[in-house]
Amino acid sequence: MKRSVLTLIIIIAVLANNGPVSAADHAVLTVALVSTSWNTGLPTAVARGMGYFAQEGLEVRPVTLASSGPIMMALLMSGQAQIVIAGGVAILRGIARGAPVVIIGGHLSRMSYALMGAKGYKSVSDLKGRIVGITGIGGLGEFAVTESLKRNGLIKDRDYTLLNIEGGTAARMAALRAGKVQAVPLTPGQWVQAEKEGLPVILDTRDSLAEFPSTVVASTREFTIAHSDQAVSFLRAESKAMDFIRQNKDKAIAMGKAQGLRGDLAVERKALDYYAEDLDIKLTQSNIAALLKIVDSSEPTGKYFDETYLNQALGKK
Known about the structure:
D-Maltodextrin-Binding Protein, domain 2, alpha/beta
């Protein structure tokens, strides 16, 4: 807890001391991104590079934190960030605990995980009696693995064992190579790298869990009520960027690099082929209802998602 508080203090200090210089007629928005992954940051990078935010009267400053849901909530409620792009489950849990936050749109419409197997493993049935390694018991990764395997006939603890591996992707891959586990979940950029080693994709959770959005756009209810035009403009600019990405993948990757995204461009370009179609601001109440099942909530979806701004951004009445 003390470490989280200290982290938050440092983040707020950085945000406060690095304000952007913008045109006087542009509203300044700080947008917190929960991950360094390109599928999280690329739409915002392209919207900045193509001038879509400027066309909407916005000056958007993205800040990538690679941090937790509670930190994201604290940044919103402190006013240090006006919008966050983060995992839908983490946002729902924060709202369920009383945070005055609301989801206003989608971002990545499906859970982009592939369950990569060790060499020689070709199908879900090959994992029966084996060990699957994840990082973070109780997190979205665990849900994606256990639910997708369940829908394909394997039940945790009955048919396979789940092993928590601290240390992130590198540690999971080391365990896979050493034979300590027989499968691990990876995001698109990571599984492109794994395929280079000859490791097979056993299961693509995007197909198994199609109703569950991965990342969403959220803000505080206070901000969206006071600045509804900015919320709508942000979503509209992001949507334009997503359309550009789908139609101009090579240019989008180059623009991501120009805007400061880091990584192997060849890997990121190939990974984009996996998730480009999933970049979408569209979101439905049924998507939220599906996510609420993960957090064991039977509350109405309207507590968590206000589609007013999304409908306006999409030109709906």
